Amino acid sequence: MIKIGDIVTRNKYNNDCLFRVTDIKDDIYYLTGVNIRLYATTCEADLKKEEIRINDEEIMDEIDIKPIDFRDDYFYLPGKILHIDADEDYLTRCLKYYKKVGINAYGILDKEEYLSSNIEKYLKDIKPDIVVITGHDVFFKEKNEYKNSIYFEKAVEKARKYENSYEKLKIIAGACQSDFENLIKSGANFASSPKKINIHALDPAILASIIALTENTKEIDLIETLKKTKCGSDGIGGIKCCGSMFVGYPK
Questions:
Q1: pLDDT above 80 for 238
Q2: Where does 61-248 sit in CATH, by number?
Q3: With CB atoms 3.0 to 4.6 Å apart as the test, which of 14, 83, 102, 233 could cross-link to 132 if both were Cys?
Q4: Distance CA 2, CA 243 (A)
């Protein structure tokens, strides 16, 4: 018997992705991706229970993490990151990632539907150089609609109204299968998902880190930067911009 909290895979998709059962109502199982920012619903017959500890490092953090290692006479001030996430487990993992690479990051847990109402307060309180607006999403192909993209879009619009300079505030928005085109139109520097695919839980954090660790006088290599995310340019796209790190002398 499969219960809430169990880790499962879906037989329909050849058991290719890990999910956590978050709720069961009227024989419908509500699932959240373990490594992908995706919601799903299905029946018990579609599920296979996996005997896996979800805190296993080899499962939860598959991406190589390299800390800052500056060995010259300059000092470095990486960009400040505000990471707003609708998933507590993902937020914890992303904050752990930022800490390992030596970046000053602030995490806030907030549901997708409340983002636009709260984001201006968060920005005023933290005053970040980079804001990540993420959580879960899904594209319903048969209906041609998204579960949470509209909430991300409204939050991006509010953030861009707060700071209209694409260089002073870099915005990274979206989750699995999100409405890439409208997120970019709303004012995001980077967004998911150009090919309406799933993205890894850490992809927004990886992108934010690269921007935070690139000098503010240097334009990031857009193509090479996107290649460093787990899902590449099929999962996240964006516009050219400079980094957010200041460099000083002497150390």
A1: yes
A2: 3.40.50.2300
A3: 83
A4: 46
